[in-house]
Amino acid sequence: MPTDTALQPPLGSRALPAQLRRCRRVVAITVHLPEFLLAASGLVQRLGAAGVRTDLLVAAAEPGADEPAEERADESAGDVIAAALGELRVPELVRHRLALPAPIGADRADDLLAGLSELVGFDPEPGVYCLAPAGDGLDPSQAIVGEAAQRIARVYRLRLVRYTATSDTAAAELDLDGQEWARKCAALAACDTQATPLHGEREYFGL
What we know:
By secondary structure, this protein is an alpha/beta fold.
């Protein structure tokens, strides 16, 4: 009897949480890069090791991009992002930018939906997951971005995974190994981030 290879888990996926082992491609979104690195960069490394491609959409303009010498500031911010993601050493990780003014309000929902739709594709293949912030109630932009991801997941019938920096509502956990942890710390350092200090070598996800 022939095997349906489209539904087989990717090579190396046993290192992933059980709920993510059928994932073959990820469309992820974040308001700013540091929050994503803090909560989900270990998962991205693990996905990359399993042969999963991740398209990461950074929704907000980076700080400094709207100051004098806008083009130079934007280029500099882009260099910082590229350096930070480079520290993760994930070849199948591609960054995309919307550069929306922060804070992101409900009036930019159409921009978010359009950006996510373009990355998902008109007729996505089996195994495409959407990865979005769970929202901690402190940043209203996260709620707007998360709602857009939820709508996209519903329309395209994708599995939606929520990343969070806390274990309060987590349905899955990922323990990072030494190399994954070191790369995560290096990526955050490259951002010169003011993100919340890391607590423990573990990441949390809601499903």
